[in-house]
């Protein structure tokens, strides 16, 4: 039976990953992922009286970082790292401190728990924070993955990360069949034809 929010869900594996660079019309799938780490930022405000904390409020900022280790397609790597061919010979690309500006990237992912129940993740506004280091080991026995570190920011909805259990994706616009190709800040919004007055859900 598909899992719902009432069940325990533990992310265990990322089996699908797609990225879309600002200006592109389609996501590029790149599923050869070794590891993905998500760090979420919070902001805490405290109120003190004579040096003693009397009140403390913490809330998410919508910002964070995503670190991904994968074997990435070369064309996608060049795009998200703002490598340029401008003024260069055909086939030659470079990192330019004049022409290069890191573009915004949208990320869609599908993760599984230990029972192969899917959950979808979406990050609408990301940028590469650090260009990966390169290590080439002659005689090595394993091809090294590329590690990318991206920062993510909140969109116009004030949200930086979206999550959805496949079993609960019952909306009209965004479904478990098209999340990986159509995810966007606009697509997650409730359609006008959906019933008004439905109770809002919050993550426990």
Descriptive account of the structure:
With 204 residues, the protein is mostly beta strands. The protein has one domain (13-134, 142-182). The chain is 5% helix and 39% strand. It has two helices and eight strands, in the order ββββαββββα. Strands 1, 2, 3, 4, 5, 6, 7 and 8 form an eight-stranded antiparallel beta sheet that branches. The two termini are 21 Å apart. The mean pLDDT is 90.
What order do the helices and strands come in, and which of them pair?
Blueprint: E1 13-21, E2 28-29, E3 33-49, E4 52-70, H1 74-80, E5 105-112, E6 118-130, E7 146-152, E8 162-165, H2 179-182
Antiparallel strand pairs: 1-2, 1-5, 3-4, 4-7, 5-6, 6-7, 6-8
Give me some keywords for this one:
8 strands, 5% helix, mainly beta, 2 helices, 8-stranded antiparallel β-sheet, 39% strand, 204 residues
Query: How big is the Rg?
Result: 20 Å
Chain oligomer state = single chain
How do the helices and strands follow one another from N- to C-terminus?
EEEEHEEEEH
Q: In percent, how helical is the residue content?
A: under 10%
The largest sheet, given as strand count, sense and whether it forms a barrel, is: 8 strands, antiparallel
The geometry reads as: globular
Count the DSSP helices.
2
- Percent of residues in beta strands: 35-45%
The number of E-state strands comes to 8
Q: Which residues sit in consecutive blocks of at least 5 with pLDDT less than 50? A: none
Distance between the termini: 21 Å
Mean of pLDDT = 90
